[in-house]
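ok so for the tutorial part 2 we go from a plain amino acid sequence to predicted structure tokens. step 1 is just haveing the sequence, like this:
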Amino acid sequence: MRSASSKRETAADKGSSANALRANHLRREVKTALELAVASMGPTEMVDRLAIAAGLLEALAEFPPDAAPVVATAPRALAMADEALKAWRAWEAKPGRKGVV
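step 2 — the prediction. this is what the tokens look like for a chain of 101 residues:
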């Protein structure tokens, strides 16, 4: 039978795994959005925000998930990526944008 502390470690490991999976998915999604935004000549500010988010997430992916730079920077990087994707989706959904790329 497992001790309470090992059960907590397992739950923490699962949480860490879920966060890493979310970050990996978000990194790929931002990278794709950046490529599409560049190809469709999107607004410079939006492209820049996507590029910053993509670069930061790419850099963080090179570190172990529990490394100090990841722990310190990941929450801000994920928030930046979410905001950049939100702007991309809003721009992409504008009338007249369907099928353009």
